[in-house]
Amino acid sequence: MTGRAIGLDDIEDLALGAVVLGTGGGGDPYVAKIMLAEAIEKYGPVPLVDAADLDPDGLLLPVAMVGAPTVIVEKFPNGNEAHTVLRALEEHRGDKGVAVMPIEVGGMNTLFPIAVAAELGLPCVDADSMRRAFPQIEMTLLTLDGISSSPMTLADVKGNYVYFDAQDNATGEKLVRACVAQMGMIAVMSAYPMTAAQCARHAVNGSVTFALEIGRRVNAIQQGKPGAYDEFLTFCEAQILFTGKVLDIERHTTAGWARGTVTLEHLDDRSRVMRVDIQNENLIAFEDGVPLATVPDLITLMDIETGVPMTTESLGFGQRLHVIGMPAHPRWITPDGLALAGPRAFGYDLDYVPLGGAR
Amino acid sequence: MTGRAIGLDDIEDLALGAVVLGTGGGGDPYVAKIMLAEAIEKYGPVPLVDAADLDPDGLLLPVAMVGAPTVIVEKFPNGNEAHTVLRALEEHRGDKGVAVMPIEVGGMNTLFPIAVAAELGLPCVDADSMRRAFPQIEMTLLTLDGISSSPMTLADVKGNYVYFDAQDNATGEKLVRACVAQMGMIAVMSAYPMTAAQCARHAVNGSVTFALEIGRRVNAIQQGKPGAYDEFLTFCEAQILFTGKVLDIERHTTAGWARGTVTLEHLDDRSRVMRVDIQNENLIAFEDGVPLATVPDLITLMDIETGVPMTTESLGFGQRLHVIGMPAHPRWITPDGLALAGPRAFGYDLDYVPLGGAR
Questions:
Q1: What is the fold of B238-346?
Q2: Digit-coded pLDDT (tens) for A288-301
Q3: Contact check, Cβ <8 Å, A161/B162
Q4: What's the CATH fold of domain A235-346?
Q5: A166: distance to nearest CA of chain B, Å?
Q6: Contacts with A87 (C-beta within 8 Å, 6 or more apart), sequence order
């Protein structure tokens, strides 16, 4: 597939789909949409390319915002951070990048790399490393395949810059997270430098297009098209786990993450209660204490009428939401995938439960 | 002064003097003494040079261990960390170092750079940046003169490496400290890269020799020479603030530092109690709540009979100690010096008190 590009008309759909796959995390797309629109107006549509179509030895430039998404809303990058971290990566490799690469899918972290690509005059690779958002940098399919996240480069809005060469990806996460906490909880990062051939082989290819296609279907819901919700669920292989009203939200930002829980009361049966646990992303959905969906499967909260997918920071008391469960990329539902990003990796004394739980 | 060198015979005296100037911090010299002895046996005595005698444009290689001194006793560098951080500095500057430079004076951090110099086949500069030990990296006379601590390089025993380019020295401290906490509380750092001319102008020159001279006088105390304690006090312009028995020690390692307090009961009058507050180094000595010595002046605890100077980690219940106050380098006792490293810089609602307090 060639000739694709992300233009102004795609931004809204891409943001919607990215928020769905962001499972509550990955950042609020509001500022990222403005940023991407400005970049496209200035530099034109951004070519979206398959890694397999690039020079196999070509260096990719992965980039993401890292920190607490609740903070991203207030502290936006000034534009220099991405240049700093990517130029440093190029200098280290002694090579020029051939394309920018998103590290995760999320409201912020899908749109931001495309804006960066526009500014650098490069295409964006239609790929990411997880086909969702995760709160920790080592939680990627790349880690499962033994690809190092180092060297990693990190820059903040004040011009502070840090370069990391960690011996393993979990240590890399700890070091970056510790610095981000000192950088006002938000910074721009490059990690997992790789060639196009490595991306084609080890990353999730097609995930930007997947987000765009999901977004188009969410858009149809928002426009009130008949059957649009079903069409969306079918496309995503998703299911509605619970439909309720937000009773309670508990959020706090700590150690570089936004943590919390949201509690919903079922619309039809007020005795039924669902609790969704959050660490940047929605991790586990419990109905009356029984897990119906667990990480790495995706849990997304969407307005029952407008179809608006919720980021953690957009949750509000009284909202009437579907709790939607969506299967993770199949590579995650393997022994090593679950060891890296299943419930126990987040401190739960709980095994992975297939979508819908034991019902 | 030329032709000086640190040989095997100097190690014990240098360690004693460095612990005195380390004011409880700067690390236990035990392992550093072994390390330096091995390096001197292998490579020969280490020339000690004045910065003013070096090529003014020559690059100095400052090096120190950073973390909680309580941990240094158990986790010692494997020797590669210093090479990693200094080679990275040289690569960044595109120049080869002409001499190694101690960053602070302390049991560990005076001996360690000399051992590194031996291994690199370089001389050691007779200088440091504070003429004592301080718990925070930005607390140097170099900061007062506007010299950046960045770029800083950091490596741990496992081979993890981090490079920092911070916009100000206080931010550099925060970023390094955050990473050290993830590196098991101890790592090897290079910071304040500078030329010999900058060292000659802005650092404390002669401080290694100063430590050695102090150590010789402490050695005389240990050998029971008559009048040795007085001779030591006179040389250091020091005074005995309190003489007591250790009643209580409270220590904990947190956020990359060893914090605590030691409480002593006066030997002659048990109604008199002195409390010394510690953050890696001894910060303030209070008698019955009244400060008699405050940072940046030096507070050193020494055995009343053997003259052994105490590091924080060597303190023990029942020890009979002199609490000795020694004036800081005069550059510290200025408005900007006290703002950077006076009691308020450590969170005390307390002004600097000249040695001996209001007595």
A1: CV3147-like (2.40.390)
A2: 999 999 999 999 99
A3: no
A4: CV3147-like (2.40.390)
A5: 5
A6: none
